[in-house]
Design a protein that fits this description.
The chain is of the alpha/beta class and about 350 residues long. It has helices at about 10-15, 40-50, 75-85, 105-115, 135-140, 170-185, 205-220, 240-250, 265-275, 295-300, 315-330, 350-355; strands at about 20, 65-70, 95-100, 120-125, 145-150, 165, 195-200, 225-235, 255-260, 285-290, 310, 335-340, 345. The strands form 2 sheets. The protein has a 7-stranded mixed β-sheet with strand order 1-12-6-5-4-2-3, sandwiched between helices. A 6-stranded mixed β-sheet has the order 8-7-9-10-11-13, sandwiched between helices. Helix 6 (about 170-185) packs parallel to helix 7 (about 205-220). The radius of gyration is 21 Å and the shape is elongated. The structure holds alpha-L-arabinofuranose.
């Protein structure tokens, strides 16, 4: 790995800049933990624009970063890719080698091996699923290349195989969703009613799926009148979300709540609900909630289709850059870094919030 020397000024600037991440609590093998519900996406974008150059673009001495991205399955993912591409620029002192794995773990493993062959300075992975990474991470370790995890977690027995992880607290997102549903039903005078739910899950085995499902399951235990009729994967895509919802509607004629494990699945589910002659949203037959809080979810809430969306912040480029800068400076980094997240529903001034939204 190339050694870079950073000025005292840069180190001081870095110490001041990282405001969006909660400190680690040492729970490296799970999809969730404690974090405060505060959203700051506009600030994150500014951080990327203001980032101090890390390598030396003029002399060509750039820090090479290989990013093994999941794919392009959702609006969230597009925003995440854009966050990396706009952060890891030559102007900022980096050379980014970007790989889109098309939601396939084997493609990500190939990409990591290719990064090792190319002797990159850092490998960043947003793992498709949590398990099955030990061998390739050992290979990176043997090659002396630090690995940083972003967005989703890996379930590895030896946490020295990666330097740090930064992402959303998926269990907490699921629990926030469950609490919101309980409060909403209570406000509607339906707190004691028998409530039938279905879940359109994300990619099975992905941290975002595992954590959100677990968080909702924790809340289901608190409400004996809630029944989860069915759960099927919509692969985090709009097309599969629609397909799964169509099949749910054929199997069950009394669905009260649809939990979609990302916004894009909800857009598909809403199309399926309307095509079946039913309605959804605050004035409709079916309550629809989802995760991510992308701009299109605000538009869907404003249109009266989606009830609520639970935030998952995708702007990890500047956060990973800060980790790299600290490692370059020989500083220690928190192993687990949760990003603060919030939620949004139709009781809020969504037009105003949307105007400020960065993704
Ligand atoms: O891992 C984050 C999840 O992945 C987002 O919720 C989803 O939209 C994406 O595909």
């Amino acid at each position: 790995m190339k050694k870079k020397v950073l000025s005292a000024l840069l180190i001081a600037a870095m110490a001041l800049s990282m405001t969006a991440c909660g400190s680690g609590n040492g729970d490296s093998g799970s999809s969730g933990g404690d974090s405060a519900p505060v959203s700051d996406d506009a600030e994150d974008t500014e951080d990327a624009e203001d980032a101090e150059p890390a390598g030396d673009a003029d002399s060509g001495d750039l820090i090479t970063v290989g990013y093994a991205q999941v794919g392009a399955e959702s609006d969230w993912r597009t925003a995440n890719t854009e966050s990396f591409k706009s952060t890891f620029t030559e102007e900022n002192g980096y050379k980014l080698i970007f790989d889109d794995a098309q939601q396939k773990q084997e493609n990500q493993i190939k990409a990591i091996r290719s990064f090792i062959q190319q002797e990159v300075d850092y490998i960043v992975v947003a793992p498709v699923v949590e398990t099955g990474w030990e061998t390739v991470l050992e290979e990176a370790k043997e090659a002396g290349i630090p690995v940083i995890l972003s967005d989703r977690m890996m379930d590895v027995s030896d946490d020295s195989l990666f330097e740090a992880w930064v992402g959303g607290n998926f269990v907490q997102e699921g629990e926030t969703c469950g609490d919101w549903i309980a409060e909403y039903l209570e406000d509607q005078g339906r707190g004691d009613e028998e409530i039938n739910m279905v879940t359109i899950q994300g990619t099975i085995g992905a941290s975002a799926q595992v954590g959100r499902t677990e968080g909702m399951a924790n809340k289901l235990k608190e409400h004996s009148n809630w029944k989860m009729l069915d759960m099927q994967s919509g692969e985090f895509t709009q097309a599969k979300g629609q397909e799964v919802m169509e099949s749910f509607l054929k199997s069950y004629d009394d669905i009260d709540v649809v939990i979609c494990e990302n916004d894009n699945e909800a857009f598909g589910a809403i199309d399926a609900i309307k095509a079946a002659g039913k309605s959804c949203g605050p004035d409709g037959d079916i309550i629809v909630v989802s995760f991510d809080s992308v701009k299109a979810a605000f538009e869907s809430m404003i249109a009266g289709d989606l009830n609520a969306t639970f935030e998952c912040n995708p702007l990890h480029g500047p956060r990973v850059a800060e980790i790299i800068q600290k490692l370059e400076a020989g500083e220690s980094v928190d192993k687990i870094q949760y990003v603060d997240e919030s939620y949004f529903d139709t009781s809020m001034d969504l037009e105003s919030i949307l105007e400020e939204r960065a993704y």
